[in-house]
Specification:
Shape: globular
Distance between the termini: 30 Å
Number of helices: 7
Strand content: 25-35%
Order of helices and strands: EEEEHEHHEHHEEEEEHEEH
Radius of gyration: 16 Å
Structural class: alpha/beta
Helix content: 25-40%
């Protein structure tokens, strides 16, 4: 990916390592209708202003940003969260097992120390603690699925949009670093769970967008095999 684009049906890629900042994960903005926007992850932090500019260049008013879903606690996904919450009043959502590191701005387990980034602590307004949590924003229902492995509190997001199932599977590729809380056994179970979602489109955390469904399945199965050796 070398620029912002519409992935499908009101889902936009607005940030990433080759779009906004070398440390950024892929950042997705979802237009849910009814003047409601949802952000999936927030980049590493230094790119905050550029992410805002990119969203506005698409014609969106971020005063309509209702929620920021943080898929896990690593700094490349959460670094901009505090600024989005402070400036737009959006609700920050994360799993309770990763929430403490996010709220404390902890440096080791978030990878902030490794990245050399100062992480601003961010309150988590909604702490998930169920295998699946369904939340409606605007005209869309978001299914937030607990998929531990990469981190204890990793979540994946599934949204059905205009006849297609879109999976935000941030960091399916890993890495699995035990010192950062990774668990290969839980990762394997999580990947099987994602395959069972039968998604038509995969929005991955760093390595692009995959479609149709057979390519999504093949991508996930490839990493499942890699981490089963």
């Amino acid at each position: 990916m070398n620029g912002i684009c519409e992935v499908y049906g009101g889902i936009y890629l607005i940030g990433g390592s080759d779009i906004t900042h070398s440390a950024d994960c892929s950042v997705y903005l979802v237009d849910c209708g009814k003047d409601t926007l949802v952000l999936i992850d927030s980049g590493a932090g230094p790119s905050y202003n550029l992410l805002v500019d990119n969203a506005e260049s698409l014609g969106f008013n971020l005063t309509n940003l209702k929620a920021l879903i943080l898929t896990h606690k690593h700094v490349d996904h959460i670094g901009g969260a505090a600024k989005f919450r402070k400036n737009y009043g959006c609700k920050v959502i994360a799993h309770e097992l990763d929430a403490k590191s996010i709220e404390e701005g902890e440096r080791f387990l978030t990878g902030a120390e490794a990245y050399g980034i100062i992480l601003e602590p961010c309150p988590v307004d909604m702490k998930l603690n169920q295998p699946e949590t369904r939340i409606t924003f605007g005209q869309l229902q978001f299914n937030l699925i607990w998929t531990p492995g990469h981190t204890p509190g990793s979540i994946s997001v599934v949204v059905d949009v205009k006849g297609k199932r879109v999976l935000f599977g941030q960091d399916i590729h890993g890495p699995l670093i035990p010192a950062w809380g990774a668990d290969i056994g839980k990762y394997r179970e999580s990947m099987k769970k994602l395959i069972n979602q039968k998604a038509d489109i995969l929005c991955e955390g760093h390595f692009g967008i995959y479609q149709p469904a057979d390519k999504v399945k093949k991508y996930i199965e490839g990493y499942l095999r890699q981490y089963s050796r």
